Records
---
Amino acid sequence: MSAAPTTSHLASRLGGIALGILPIALLAAGWELVASSGLVTPFMLPKLSAVLQRIYDDALTGELFINLGLTLYRALVGFAISVVGGVLLGAAMARSVPVRWFFDPIISVGFPMPKIAFLPIMVLWLGFFDVSKIAMIVLDAIFPVVTATVAGLNSVERELIWSARNMGASERELLWQVMLPAALPQILTGLQVSLPLCLIVAVVAEMAMGGYGLGGAMNTASRFADSRGVFAGIVEIAAVGYCLIKLMSLLRRRLLLWHQEALEPTTA
Amino acid sequence: MKAALIRFLPLLLIALLWEIAPRVGLVSSLALPPLSAVLSAWFELLRDGDLITNGASSLYRAGVGLALAIVVGGALGLFMAWWRPVNAFLSPLVELFYPMPKSALIPVTVLWLGFGDGSKILLIFLGCMLPVTIGAFNGARGSERVLIWSARSMGASRLRVLWDVVLPSAMPELLNGIRTAIALAFILLVSSELIVARQGFGYLIGFLGANGSYEGMFAVVLTVALIGFAADRLYQVLMQRVLQWRE
């Protein structure tokens, strides 16, 4: 008797997944059809199967993993620096008046600027290799983390702070055990804004400077009018972006198990 | 006045340091030209007309791409919220493409439309559409059922309800989505112009840098950064204006 509801639940879940995959399958089939119908030249739109074949070949020669690894390395090192630096700076700004006085105008003027324009200056200062790319990523990705940390720490409930102080918590304990956990949901939202920025900037920096990496490989492919290579790059970068963002939202759910928002039904 | 001065003093200090550090030889003036040299290079570029012609073509690309993204993306989001089958079909696709780093599209748009305006407009349109769509969708979905029911019972047609009830209540989130789109538009514009272009701010930055006239390069970089900042601030003022009826 008890098996019946479970199976129907499972069936409805499978149905939901099928319904979600259907449009994607249709899109893939449409791509393949349009590309092989002769409406467009293979140069404008190579067949999906040819693009997948190309990715498979690159995986066999190992080129795919070199490029993928380098792009991920740059993006994730940049992200890690932005997270640590951003949270530290944000915490300092929330707690110290002089620090806030100094950095507040810089952050509020710098956040809306298109910092990617500084790319040639980074190259001038730091050269063509990893350091300039990672510096560029940090310059772009640190702002959302700082603002989210400041906003999160400033909105911690007074009662929490008062009770912790009342029970004899030191300033350090107050920060690590009360304020930062209470601000965590907002900080994580900042990280969720910052992570895609890391990938966007990593790809742009690689495209502009050339060399290895997913963006560099796409740039080379486009210079040689190798459209299969260009489309392979799009598929690879889209897959990487999708996986990273899914991982980030899993991490958020894991870290915030104790928080009310974990009880709400999620669509993700 | 005094409060503003104290608030923006750090920026003045940085500007001062920028002027002094290369002058006293703390950093090479090749790596960091003094601020005054950058400013005079800026006036030079303005007088030559380089800044105006390149700036005009950049702003034209960003404007057209953004306008298309707002109209198409907003309509798409509203229809997704309004009509179930559209949502069932499009939401997996939106979820698939939203996390994609949009800069990956730069080489494809060049492949399709060449080096000119078309490829940049297409890139900005594609890159900025989804944040607007998601804003419109979330906003429209959050519109209160009771308002829709009352409008319907008072005899409003479905389209009338969409226009008079759903769109206004979707406005705050839609406008926030557009704000994200504006920031993205500048990023995509400058990066695509840095990588492949024959005109525009990004091209001018690359051109001046390659010729070693770093004062000019810094001047154009600052111009772009300030335009991006000003666009965001102006948009915020506009947003508050539009949303005034919400108290």
---
Amino acid sequence: MSRGTATERVVPTPLVVSSRQRRLVAGDRVFEGLAVGAAIVILLIAAVFVLALFVPALPAITKFGFGFLTSSTWDPVRLQFGALPAIYGTLLTSAIGLLIAFPIGIGAALFLAEEARLGLLRGPLSFAVELLAGIPSVVIGLWAFFILTPLMRDNVDPFLSHTLGFLPFFQGSASGYGFLTAGVVLAIMVLPILIALSRDVIRAVPRSLREASLALGATKAETVWSVVLPYARVGITGAVLLALGRALGETIAVTMVIGNRPQITASLYAQGYTLPSVIANEFTEAVGNLYQGALFELGLILVLITIIVNVAARILVWRFTGSAPVRV
Amino acid sequence: MNRLLLRIALDRLVTGAIVLCVMVAAVPVLVLLLFVLIKGLPGMLAPGFFTDPPHPVGVPGGGVANAIIGTLEIVGIGSLLAVPFGALVGIFLSEFGRNRLGDTVRFVSDVLTGLPSIAFGIFGYTILVATLHHFSAISASVALAVLMLPVILRTTETALVLVPQSLREAGLALGAPRWRVTLEIVVPAALGGIVTGALLAMARAAGETAPLLFTTLGNEFVQVNPLQPMGALSLTVFKNALVPYANLQDQAWAAALLLVMLVAITNLLARIYIRRIQR
């Protein structure tokens, strides 16, 4: 569908070429040239984009080499930089976010795609999900900073310590800022994209499969569990990966609640750092080529990770629904 | 019989769980909007909120005039750069893009869509701030323009592809050259989709913060020159939230409310427009 079904050249070559016809053909040449030129400019912009991320990172790349990825020291004063704490924080917060969002998102998507009995609710709920997708991340960050962090500190964290405190993840003092809170914020932020994409994937499951299952006497829930979900598995994996791509790169809201401390701990209450939040937090105060270069290299790592995740996701979703997800 | 009852009960249980999921998913939206409304409205109705620049720390009152002008101007210039160009690439994809070049452009634009927004800020910094040696609103506009491009060109393509082939053939049969058929028949027929895409891209750009941090930087004073640092609503929210002054924090909530309203109105316009076109 989304592949261009462009007009083939339906204009036959005229036998007698008048000056007017020549003008018409010239106009088409110019037009096509303009369009192709614009397309090439887009590719150039993308190339410049890559260079703009790569070249300023060179001082750090040449100085630290691969050690940058494995060093856990981030000390701007001594000009020692390692990306490991930020990579750890990025992966950990995204994982928490997806763990929370996945069951809720799939459930909500099933409701929107499958459930006919409470159809009245569907319109407002779809609207609410789209509304959430449109709320700027800085607003979600503001809300999380003032409302969610006290809630986590005073209620959620103590409760988790009380019930699951024997696990290393839920030990230590809770300030409200840290990995867990950032994970919850990310869960809220990836929910809309997860719901919208999974809904489309679930809707793309052939109706006849559902009917066959129901005709065999399976209940609705059994049909969903043993027919719909297995069929949609590949597409849902793609949706989860796209949500992961969004979570990995989320900057502002996470910066406001992560605590901004470069450390690696098992405790989810601990304050940490993520790749984008280091950049957002320290960029304007970074002096010197090396410090700036280290921040640029963090950006480069982030971009590489998100590109890999996104390309994998798009291939999966595209293979499933037959068209690339345009709206995301 | 007993087993059947069990299965039916399980079915009901699953349905209940699914409904619960929807409720849980919808709660954050309501809570969020409620808080922004309650905490932001008093600040928004305070005198001078729309007309005054921020007052120095410790002086009560003040507004966000600098940020309102900044957001409108930065997004406006960004849209002027991105919309015509993005639409042209969309035309290429739909009318001339069934080839290697078209597939490459689609792939590149999909990759751009997935990039974290902070990457666009770094891009704007490297190509305009570092080269001109000072922060400027125009570098933010360029960063946002690149961020908007993929959305605009893919929605334009989708809208153009949906125009019936017979319309194109009718135009060509009348002897019109291809460019006139495209610009005077195909594009007008798909205008609803194109405008919607542009509005959605603008709404997204207006809410972005990360690309602005190291391009336009922020400015406490009203500034209209795009070559100078400029304030923006999202920057006001971000910066005022993190300072320990109650009146500035109130202003952050009010600015957040204004930002949400701006984004919501743009989204609403897009919906209304597409509905009117479809009629």
